[in-house]
């Protein structure tokens, strides 16, 4: 398994691969508020859904086609109302690759740039994985397996498991199909379904340049997408338009709002304090980077000096040096005091 992780870890779209492969899946859901649910133990980003008498609204689609189908089956175990809307929080594959499992007539809602981002980033990655990365990885594993005489040895069995998992994953990602959103918006989109009011807001670039916040207004609950990684290291990807400054500002603004409960993109559902915690992570890390920079250390030295254990986060540890690099770059480009707003 370590080999898979090493091979694939650098591609965000596949961050949930190990979950997908290893999970002893017992999918379920928890009640968030009246008729509002969070699907638990799903690989990929968190998925929530709201049941109304006129139909169901779902936020995010899971990380694979089979994931999408699982989401639908969980929803159907709660309500037989039709699934009317699928809101996508941003374009990352672990939030949208399950779309194909959803009914054809579901109305997809997303930021105006999501489809463009999908075409620019996800499609190329998926094609590359299907045509190059995974096939050559499988060939390589086969060669290694062929060289081992004892077919009952742990080494052989580990390679075999790796092979089967990747073969299965290859078949899975071949089924990924994107659908263009039916409703797109630039700044905000507000709609009503039955008695429920739902507000979608684009607060500018943060985690990506298309990340939106979903507000279940009747419930004082928000689904932040990946603007919050509760308890783990967030993904900061320059090419995807990350803006740490605006990300923090968004979180601080949201924290002032009348919100009780936050469904993060990844990690446990929690009270609104996790908005502040995510912002504080960036502030503390930015400050530490700034101080070391002022002391004359270069980026590589700063990466060495900052101890991940000081942050008490578990998960995505390989992203920590990238976090430092992105924040360092943004500190340099935006000016040293930029985070003190
Ligand atoms: Zn993301």
What are the segments in which pLDDT stays under 50 over at least 5 consecutive residues? 1-26
Rg? 21 Å
Major beta sheet, strand line-up: 1-2-3-4-5-6-7
Mean pLDDT, rounded to whole units?
Answer: 91
| Amino- and carboxy-terminal Cα gap | 43 Å
Describe the structure.
The chain has 341 residues and is of the alpha/beta class. It folds into 2 domains: 7-115 and 179-274, Metallo-beta-lactamase, Chain A, CATH 3.60.15; 277-334, no CATH class. 41% of the residues lie in helices and 21% in strands. The chain has 10 helices and 13 strands. A 7-stranded mixed beta sheet has the order 1-2-3-4-5-6-7, covered by helices on one side. The protein has a 6-stranded mixed beta sheet with strand order 8-9-10-11-12-13, covered by helices on one side. The model is unreliable at 1-26 (pLDDT under 50). It binds zinc ion (ZN). Residues 90, 92, 207, 226, 235 line the site of zinc ion (ZN).
Task: Briefly characterize the structure.
The protein is α/β, with parallel strands linked by helices and 341 residues long. The chain has helices at 2-8, 17-22, 65-78, 93-96, 114-146, 154-174, 244-255, 273-294, 299-305, 320-334; strands spanning 28-33, 36-40, 47-52, 55-59, 83-87, 107-111, 183-185, 188-193, 196-202, 212-216, 221-229, 261-266, 270-271. The structure holds zinc ion.
Q: Which characteristics define this entry?
A:
341 residues; alpha/beta; Metallo-beta-lactamase, Chain A; seven-stranded mixed sheet; 10 helices; 41% helix; disordered N terminus; binds zinc ion
